[in-house]
Amino acid sequence: MNEISNYDKQDKPAVPQVPPEARYRPTALPSAPPPPPQQHYRAPEHYTPPVIPPAPLPQPAPPPQKKEPWWRVCLHGCMVASFVTMLCLIALVTVSLGGCYMLMSNLGRALNEDPGKMAQSGAGAVTLGQGVKVAHITINGMITDSGGGSSWFIDENSSEAALSKIRIATDDPSIRGILLSINSGGGGITSSDVIWDALEKFKGADPDNNRKVVVMMGTTAASGAYYISVAGDYIVANPTTLTGSIGVIMTSLNIKELARKVGFKDVTIKSGANKTMLSPFEDITPEQEKMLQTLVDSLHTRFVKIVAEGRSIDEAKVRALADGSVILATEALELGLIDEVGYIEDAKAKMEELLGAKVIYLEGNQEPPFLKLFRSPSFWGACMSKAVAIAGEGLAGQSAVQIK
Q: What are the residues whose beta carbons fall under 8 Å from the beta carbon of 352, sequence distance 6 or more?
């Protein structure tokens, strides 16, 4: 304690005394230089300030998608499958009912007629009373070969349907004649030849040679249509019918230059030089042209011979006419290519004259192909065929109607 006291008593350095008024006097800062004068921007007189679009409002974030449970997905799939199955069943029932209605309506119409009358679904007509049956068959349009009757729907006046009807009439010994109404500009030579051959076989199927074919030409009966008409025993043409056009044609397109300009390139691997004859990407050589001309001439010769034999005209005369020209009915009559210029009534009268009896025409319609479902080996077709057969047998026991 004595040391601390002695320390306090020691001499300390003197602290300068500052007067009170000087303690609170602010120190003067050095004066700053004056700021430079501001230069104000002056807009041009015609200045239009740009329009700033407002900022888009922030969009709320989409809610997180929830994954559907498996049972709901399965339920949706089952609903779709059920709907499709229901549509298929409705279509099947509609076709079945339509077929049954057509079959039963044919049976009903037959039962309402005289029991001595006879219905034939194969020829597609009902004969009335006593008379000679003649099938009235129509060919309308191009003569083609569609490769069989696989389609469910077929034009009853097409060449394919006509060929089927001719063959049905050939197998029916009660049919004595065919009245062929044809309105066609021609078609494939093979298809025409097949129908011509079917007509010849129809006439040849009768050992007594009593079957007759009368052809009635419509607006046009040229080329392949005339090829078929030659099989007739008598040809009648309307006064305005265009016929003739005896000839064969083979056509092809060559797009080699067009393919080269467009940038197409043909790549063909062939086993022989003539394998790609008439290719649209290759030019035909003189040797190939000569070869094809020989084929066309051979087919043309067959056409000429068939016309000469069918119309009993000298082959040289027919060859002179066979330049592909189309002629009117009156000129065709003068040249011996047809037998008469007239109308359908004249053709029917000639048919009765050739057969020597009253004629009953079978104005048959081709059976709709979907009715083949009832004769199919499937379960549904077998069931429907059995039901229709039972119904037919029950009705046949009450009348003389026969279903073939």
A: 358, 359
CB-CB contact of 215 with 234 (8 Å): yes
Distance CA 87, CA 80 (A): 11
For 280-378, where are the E strands, in sequence order?
Answer: 326-328, 340-341, 359-362
Q: Strand 212-222 and strand 242-244: pairing?
A: parallel
**Is 181 annotated in the active site?**
no
Q: Are 280 and 258 in contact (CB under 8 A)?
A: no
Backbone Cα Rg of the chain: 49
Using an 8 Å Cβ cutoff, are 247 and 223 in contact? yes
The closest alpha carbon to 228, from 239, 242, 217, belongs to: 217
Q: Which residue is listed with tokens 């003068």?
A: 334
Q: What is the dihedral of CA 396, 400, 403, 404, to 10 degrees?
A: 130
For 138, phi then psi, to 5°, come to: -120, 140
43-92 pLDDT, tens digit per residue, is: 566 667 777 777 777 777 777 777 777 777 788 788 888 888 988 888 88
**Phi and psi torsions of 13, nearest 5°:** -65, 145
| pLDDT digit string, tens, across residues 291-302 | 999 999 999 999
Considering the candidates 201, 270, 275, 290, report the single residue annotated as catalytic.
275
Structure tokens at 89: 């069943």
Q: Which two structure tokens, joined as six digits, stand for 71?
A: 């049972």
Report the Cα–Cα distance between both ends of the chain, in Å, rounded: 152
Tokens found for residue 280? 């649209």
Of the candidates 147, 126, 125, 129, the residue with the CA atom closest to the CA atom of residue 137: 125
Residues 6+ apart with CB under 8 A from 240: 219, 328, 329
Nearest-angstrom CA–CA distance, 193 and 397: 44
Structure token pair of residue 377: 């080996």
Q: Is 350 a catalytic residue?
A: no
The single residue of 223, 229, 348, 350 carrying the catalytic annotation is: 223
Q: Is 177 helix (H, G, I), strand (E, B) or coil?
A: strand
Residue 214: its pLDDT value, please? 95
Q: How confident is the model at residue 103 (pLDDT cuts 50, 70, 90)?
A: low
CA–CA separation, 255 vs 206, rounded Å? 53
